[in-house]
Write the structure tokens for this entry.
Amino acid sequence: MTNKQRVHAALEGRPVDRFPVTSLYNQLYQDDHFSELTGLPDWRRQEWAAMSPERHVALFRRMHEAAPFELLQPHGAPSRTWRERQEFVEQDGHGYRHDRETHERIQLDVATASGHASDYHANETRYVFTREDIDRQLPRPQPGHAQDRGGLEYIDAVVREFGREEFIISGGVVGTLYLCGHHVGQTNLFAMLIEEPELVEALCERITECNLAEIRRLATAGGDAGYIDDATATSDMISPAMYERFSLPYMQAMVAEIHRLGHKAIVIYFGGVMDRLELIAATGADGFSYEASMKGFVNDTAEIARRIGGRTTFFSNIDPVAVLQNGTDAGLAAEIRRQVEAGRRARGFILSTASPITPGTPLARVRKFLELGRIPVL
């Protein structure tokens, strides 16, 4: 079987010769490990994000050959007009980006606090107080959004280069509940679920409209699947009743749209899921990825398989820190075998880390994971 055939079969519950092996969000792995994967200075990563599609996909191939995940996740692209006016230079041992139109000059080889390629900080400012604020803060998507090719050229190039043999996730969206925090503040949001639930629902409905438009835009690039990262909709953050009200209907709408467009739908949960498995299965998603047991919760693959194994395909939840980054080869092999035995009882199964691979995980460990994970299905 080709990788593409194997992943499609796994997501459809059909027989496979072996389980596919990947790490979801492998585009973040490429960002964090750009230099290790390409041999280029790390600041060249930002040049890679502004190259022509032909040059971009050539480096993508080099990274894929170094770490051949199954289920590729190409990057989106800045607009062509922005890319064409950038130049990247090395001076006095440092890399710089120079915008020929604005004359902006940015030093690129500046380390982040986290060690990731880029850092993120949640919004804590409230901008939306009324339904009128929703219209101002988040206008309805305009007709033609789905036809906008800006930002899709890298995905287009990866689909052309790899799409015959490889399974490609063309992109995805973040769940509506989490995105509410961009407009009301992440901490404020959880109080508003109790104190202002109707306003949160109105905001979720508008965000869903925007997400559906983005799902349609991404689908025009081709590929095989789209993902929905339902961040903060887990047991460590909200109750099952809140999940059923503020997440499930919007997830169902987005999954249905991905299916209408002929793609597979993969849902991702970074948090506890055991108290809402049946609700997650009700999204109708083809694939279900869940976090490793941590932060006081346990996500057990065997129990998940027992309860909803016939309704969706699982991605394993191998701990990317304790097992992959810091563990031994023997420990990694044992965890893979344990997860595979549990996953055999599901409709379909894909070996994966539970979260993105860490900046501290060397390439040799990633290759060992990919090697050990290719277990024939007997």
